[in-house]
Amino acid sequence: MLKKYLFVFFVSMVPLIELRAAVPIALGMDLPVLPSYIVCIAGNMLPVPIIFLFARKVLEWGADKPVIGKFFSFCLEKGHKGGEKLKAKAGKGLFVALLLFVGIPLPGTGAWTGTLAASLLDMDFKSSVVAVLLGVVLAGIIMGLASAGLLGALGAFF
After folding, report:
1. CA gap 83, 98 in Å, rounded
2. Within its chain, how far is the Cα of 139 from the centroid?
3. Of 157, 143, 117, nearest to 40 (Cα)?
4. pLDDT at position 138
5. Which of 27, 107, 114, 145 has the maximum number of C-beta atoms within 10 A of its C-beta?
6. What is the pLDDT of residue 152?
7. What is the Cα–Cα distance from 92 to 67, expressed in whole angstroms?
8. What digits encode the pLDDT tens for the residues 63-96?
9. Could you tell me the CA-to-CA distances from 96 to 37, 57, 129 in Å, in that order?
10. Rounded to 5 degrees, what angle do the CA atoms 136, 21, 32 make?
11. What is the pTM of this model?
12. In 3D, which of 86, 100, 93 has the Cα closest to residue 142?
């Protein structure tokens, strides 16, 4: 049982798939819902402070390096572009926009991208982490409902 929880924990830490894959995997392994959900959230949130505090510095450092420069520049550009888009649409509601950006489980959104965008937009640490946490909780709820088939049943009903 511990191996299953560790697997789900580590899957939820992986960029791009995050808890969007970890929640369905946990439910597919017949793990209890609430403990699995908590483990997925913890795994998804663990890298957030590290990303916020260091990712921008590492990407800026590596942007002019020969082998990794193109990729690092791409990441900086994508994060900056996403952040500016978010800022333009949100205006003063940047906290809510970040929460929804992280919370709606679409490709390219999530805790990693949202945290990088918040860092590039110079949002303050505390509000960024809280917005990302609430977004991760929302994404977990949506994925849990989708995995349980509830969203499909509601879609067929309406």
Report:
1. 9
2. 8
3. 143
4. 96
5. 114
6. 52
7. 39
8. 999 989 999 898 888 777 777 777 787 777 889 9
9. 22, 26, 12
10. 80
11. 0.83
12. 100
